Amino acid sequence: MTPQTLLRWHRELVRRKWAQPRRGPGRPAVDKRIRLLVLRFARENPRWGYPRIAGELLKLGLRVSPSTVRRLLLAAGLKPAPRRSGPSWREFLERQAASMIACDFFTVETISLRRFYVLFFIELESRCVHLAGCTTNPTGGWVTQRGTSPSQASSSGCVS
Questions:
Q1: 130 alpha-carbon distance from chain centroid
Q2: Which of the residues in the chain have pLDDT under 50?
Q3: Is 142 in contact with 133 (CB distance < 8 Å)?
Q4: For residue 32, which phi and psi values (nearest 5 degrees)?
């Protein structure tokens, strides 16, 4: 027996002593039956999203997270459920413009360097501007009072 053989045996003993048991990486695989059920739900109900499929499985007593459903569907080449069709922000605002009013302040500097704050409202559909009031000190109460009494606002002009 040579010294190299003895050292090799020692290295193997040390390696075996400190070796961890071999396990597969990550979580255990999802049961094939559950995987097939997820894919079936997704194919038969194309508008269902990941949470809905997970919820339907939970009703059957199968606990699967939405992220697992997502992973299974992507692995099978199925894309996410389409978003509900609906108006874009632009279409929504165009439809609602008749009932929308915006408000803001602009300032006016006088020759004596006093600053006046002018509160105005604008109807988005007709672009009519209504002056609500003018003050040197716009407090929350003052703005609230002007905004709740539209009869005090005077129409200063409408732009077509």
A1: 36
A2: 160
A3: yes
A4: -60, -35
From CA 153, how far away is CA 146, in angstroms rounded?
A: 8
Residue whose entry in the numeric block shows the structure tokens 């739900």: 41
Residues in the chain: 160
Q: Where are the alpha helices (DSSP H) in 19-159?
A: 32-44, 50-59, 66-75, 89-96, 140-148
- CA-to-CA distance for 31 and 22, rounded, in angstroms? 21
* Prediction pTM value: 0.41
HSE (CB half, 13 Å, CA atoms) of 118?
15
Partners of residue 117 on adjacent β-strands: 107, 135
- CB-based contacts of 69: which residues, under 8 Å, 6+ apart? 38, 50, 53, 54, 57
Q: Tell me the pLDDT tens digit for each residue of 60-90.
A: 999 999 999 999 999 998 887 776 567 778 8
- In the three-class reduction of DSSP (H, G, I as helix; E, B as strand; rest coil), residue 119 is classed as strand
Q: Is 128 exposed, middle or buried (0-12, 13-18, 19+ CB in 10 A)?
A: middle
Which residue from 105, 141, 136 is spatially nearest to 122, judged by alpha carbons? Answer: 105
